[in-house]
């Protein structure tokens, strides 16, 4: 099971990331773009994910992954149950979401050429 401290440690290690408490929800963003957020009860991690790939992700493990609310389907966003994630998988998801919102130059500097 992943904790808020685990998510925070990964997110805040990424360049340009800031943490904000908005309407009792912890959110991680670059500039004004939120790329990861926790539910109020801290049991669900929402994260940026390519719109064209999210259906396959949710279908791969519907216990672990879920679509956002209908009003949020317009965003590139998916939810994951914190109880079902391990630290390695959460790290991969948070870093993947972060790469969607930062320039490629920043990704190269932080993760290296091989990551792109």
Summarize the structure in words.
The chain has 116 residues and is an alpha+beta fold. A six-stranded antiparallel β-sheet has the order 1-2-3-4-6-5, with helices on one face. The longest helix is centred in the C-terminal third of the chain and has 13 residues, at 87-99. Helix 1 crosses helix 3. The protein has four helices and six strands. 34% of the residues lie in helices and 26% in strands. The protein has helices spanning 4-12, 51-60, 87-99, 104-111, and strands at 17-22, 25-30, 33-38, 44-48, 65-66, 77-81. A hairpin with a 2-residue loop joins strand 2 and strand 3. The mean pLDDT is 95.
Please render the helix and strand layout as text.
Blueprint: H1 4-12, E1 17-22, E2 25-30, E3 33-38, E4 44-48, H2 51-60, E5 65-66, E6 77-81, H3 87-99, H4 104-111
Antiparallel strand pairs: 1-2, 2-3, 3-4, 4-6, 5-6
Supply the key terms:
alpha+beta; 6 strands; 4 helices; 116 residues
Number of strand elements: 6
Protein structure class: alpha+beta
Give the ordered list of helices and strands. Answer: HEEEEHEEHH
β-sheet strand percentage:
25-35%
Distance between the termini: 29 Å
Helical content class = 25-40%
Q: How would you state the average pLDDT, rounded?
A: 95
> How many H/I helical runs?
4
Low-confidence stretches: none
Query: What characterizes the major β-sheet?
Result: 6 strands, antiparallel
* Rg from Cα: 13 Å
User: How would the global form be characterised?
Assistant: globular
Strand order of the largest sheet: 1-2-3-4-6-5
């Amino acid at each position: 099971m992943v904790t808020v401290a685990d998510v925070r440690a990964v997110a805040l290690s990424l360049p340009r990331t800031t943490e904000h408490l908005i309407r009792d929800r912890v959110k991680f963003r670059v500039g004004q773009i939120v790329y990861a957020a926790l539910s109020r009860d801290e049991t669900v991690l929402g994260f940026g994910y390519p719109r064209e790939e999210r259906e396959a992700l949710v279908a791969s493990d519907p216990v672990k992954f879920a679509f956002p609310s209908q009003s949020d389907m317009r965003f590139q966003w998916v939810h994951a149950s914190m109880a079902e994630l391990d630290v390695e998988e959460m790290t991969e998801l948070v870093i993947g979401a972060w790469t969607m919102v930062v320039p490629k130059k920043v990704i190269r500097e932080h993760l290296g050429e091989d990551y792109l």
